[in-house]
Amino acid sequence: MSTLKAVRGTRDLLPPETELWNHVESTARRIFARYNFGEIRTPIFEDTTLFARGIGEETDVVSKEMYTWEDRARAASEKAQSLTLRPENTAGVVRAYIEHKLGETGLLQKLFYIGPQFRRERPQKGRYRQFFQIGAEVIGPATAGSESPLRDAEVLEMLAAFLLELGLPPANAVAPGWRLAINSVGSAADRPRYVAALREALREIAPTMCEDCQRRADTNPLRVLDCKVPEDQPKIDALPKIADYLDDASTAHFTAVRAALDACGMAYTVNPRLVRGLDYYTRTTFEFTHDAGLGTQNALLGGGRYDGLSEMLGGPRAPGIGFAIGADRLVLTLQSQAAGSAVGSKADVFIAPVGDAQNPAALKLAQELRAQGMRVEVGDGTFRVKKSFEVADKLARKIVLLGEDEVASGVLTVKDFASGEQRKMTQVELLATAR
Ligand code: AMP
What we know:
By secondary structure, the protein is an alpha+beta fold. It folds into two domains: 17-189 and 247-341, BirA Bifunctional Protein, domain 2, CATH 3.30.930; 347-433, Anticodon-binding domain (Rossmann fold). It contains 15 helices and 16 strands. The chain has helices at 17-34, 48-55, 60-64, 90-99, 149-165, 190-205, 211-219, 233-237, 248-263, 309-312, 327-336, 359-371, 385-395, 404-409, 427-434; strands at 38-39, 45-47, 68-71, 81-85, 109-118, 130-139, 178-184, 269-270, 282-290, 299-305, 320-326, 347-353, 376-378, 396-402, 411-416, 422-426. It has an eight-stranded mixed beta sheet, with helices on both faces. A five-stranded mixed beta sheet has the order 13-12-14-15-16, with helices on both faces. α1 runs antiparallel to α5 (149-165) and α5 (149-165) runs parallel beside α9 (248-263). The radius of gyration is 27 Å and the shape is elongated. The protein binds adenosine monophosphate.
């Protein structure tokens, strides 16, 4: 029989790597709490219409990458429904905001999420079909300050604080690190004017460009700006710039975001081509890339403002801004840096019962040490002492030998693998060494 494997583009996450994942997730929870965010958990699948309307039919995500199926009707009275595994989480959060009338509180909603997303992309390092995002959204009625440029800057500053807490500083002249690029894609009114100008400019040059650009020039001209084909770059750089099509309010908003970022010493560059892959973005867009460990998939996280999304989904006006961090890529980055190795993966002690008869006492000792917060592995009385040492050395920092004498006297024989020192100590002393 052929052996079964995880589906292409999906993977199992195993210990000790999962320890790093937990570290990343718990750091996000801790830092986001300082900014007063609360957790939201939305379903993993939603009505297909949510993504088609929210993200945009012409985007790559919706037109090519979604896992969509017809859910069979279970009764004559039921209609078949088209369902989709969520390719991102912003649309789901905004749907929940509308459904639970969160806007009626009159307050800003600050929500974060952690979970899997699904896109049928070509798998490669840092790009999977099931991947994980850690994201957050700030959304609410305009009267709650949701449109303020302060919100944009605060979210960006929070991201910098989160990355720094993980041991990832910004890049500088000598060391690799993250880089923040920002842009403004204008308001819902600015964009059509810019897209029209882009379409006009592309009419002549698109036929000389790559196949993707030719298609996008027609269906979604903004996407042309994402093209990575080297020969197309000078042509793209010569296209009209969105900055020249922003109205006064959008320009003022962008200036204010930059002033707030400058005030807290954030380093960034303005990238006029940063329009991002989803249609709902308005005004501020941003992306953090990282120099180390990611190769071509170097976008660590992305986000932006989506002032019209709630209305697009049939809700009240609710401007908002959010981001999604690619957790898989963040873990890859940490693994490539010394920062990832700071997370220990060995148990504090390995208890080695010497002889079957000591198994119950070994389990009791483990119970007591674990109750005191120690991380404990227990061997088995059938192991020879040599084997116990070999296994313990792989799994733990210390071995506790538990023979008949130790059980009778309560004095344990403990060897520390790092120092090579072996000595007798009581349970209380052992606990003290682990502190
Ligand atoms: P997006 O929702 O496209 O704005 O993506 C936000 C972030 O999620 C990106 O910057 C990546 O870090 C991550 N991401 C997006 N697609 C994938 C994927 N297929 N595999 C792994 N990470 C991804």
